[in-house]
Specification:
Elements: H1 7-18, H2 24-31, E1 41-43, E2 48-56, E3 59-65, E4 69-73, E5 76-83, H3 90-105, E6 107-109, E7 112-114, E8 119-124, E9 134-140, E10 146-152, E11 154-155, H4 161-166, H5 181-186, H6 191-209, H7 215-233, H8 239-246, H9 254-276, H10 281-288, H11 292-304
Helix pairs in contact: 1-7, 6-7, 6-8, 7-8, 9-11, 10-11
Length: 306
């Protein structure tokens, strides 16, 4: 079974933080807009406090809610939520995020408040038989009035690689390979999982050469693809082959950094213990299969502290 970690979330949030410009085409495609790539856009704060999960019958725990992407272009606010799995509470969460956004632009005075709900859409990385094609918010008022607010969801598995490139939907590229997750995890045939990254790599290089992607955007997009690949492969026999197709670097999540530093700390302590016991750097290097220069560096640091 594939591991369930925040890597999909981390990639989406890193993209919105470092490369918000790339989401203009996503807004255009979802909402039928035609904003130019150099239009001014503002990423809005999405923190707020609303009622969360029920802790017991009749009571609610108040918790912070943070939406995936809340942006303002000209006089319109857009809310994008990236979702890797089906979630029964998704529509309710969208309603909560929408009110957080609306509160920032509400017009009020004594006895009156006008609350502008943002345009919204949920982007589903994976699809199951339960994945909804729309998200509907139904507002029911005390006088019996009902107002429906409906939006089409984006189901990435239904988009072709050609469409993504044609529409310049760059933020979708890292997640495209998720449609091959079952085959990759089971180590079945992965020809499609190899050919698609090759296609995106070549197209991104072409668009970079044409000036449509900056150096940083190209490098980071390749790194985002590899982050999702390593998330899915989880160290299996296909990981190296798939990562090598795209090249570039892999972004490191906070949890991965802590694990890496933890492993490094364990290696260092093992070398120190063996040095204390009289083992030579050459012996430690051979026994532990560590690089000799690495062992000697630790030995030098220990001698400096004496």
């Amino acid at each position: 079974m594939p591991k369930k970690t925040p890597d999909y979330d981390n990639v989406f949030k890193t993209m919105k933080s470092k490369h918000k410009r790339l989401f203009i085409t996503v807004i255009n495609d979802i909402f039928g807009k035609n904003y130019p790539m150099d239009i001014k856009m503002d990423v809005l704060p999405s923190e707020g406090y609303l009622s969360g999960d029920e802790t017991e019958k009749g009571s609610q725990e108040i918790e912070e809610k943070v939406s995936d992407f809340l942006i303002k272009i000209e006089d319109q606010v857009y809310l994008l939520e990236c979702q890797s799995y089906d979630d029964d509470s998704m529509a309710l969460r969208i309603a909560e995020y929408a009110f957080i956004a609306a509160r920032q632009f509400a017009d009020w005075r004594i006895g009156y408040a006008s609350i502008p709900i943002p345009k919204f859409s949920v982007i589903y990385i994976k699809r199951t038989e339960k994945t909804p094609r729309t998200t509907t918010l139904n507002f029911t008022f005390p006088d019996g009035q009902e107002v429906n607010c409906e939006s089409e969801n984006v189901i990435l598995e239904e988009l072709t690689k050609e469409y993504i490139i044609e529409k310049r939907l760059f933020p979708y590229i890292p997640f495209y390979i998720a449609r091959y997750e079952k085959d990759i995890v089971a180590e079945n045939s992965i020809e499609g999982a190899v050919k698609d990254p090759e296609y995106f790599r070549n197209e991104m290089l072409r668009l970079h050469g044409a000036g449509e992607l900056s150096d940083d955007e190209l490098i980071d997009l390749k790194g985002f693809v590899n982050t999702i690949i390593t998330h899915i492969t989880n160290g299996n026999g296909y990981e190296e082959r798939l990562v090598n197709v795209m090249g570039g670097t892999v972004i490191e999540t906070e949890s991965e950094r802590l694990r890496r530093e933890g492993r490094e700390g364990e290696r260092c302590e093992l070398v120190k213990r063996m040095l204390y016991k009289g083992k030579t750097p050459e012996e430690i290097s051979e026994i532990c299969d560590y690089d000799l220069s690495y062992v000697r560096q630790i030995e030098e640091r220990m001698l400096e502290m004496v």
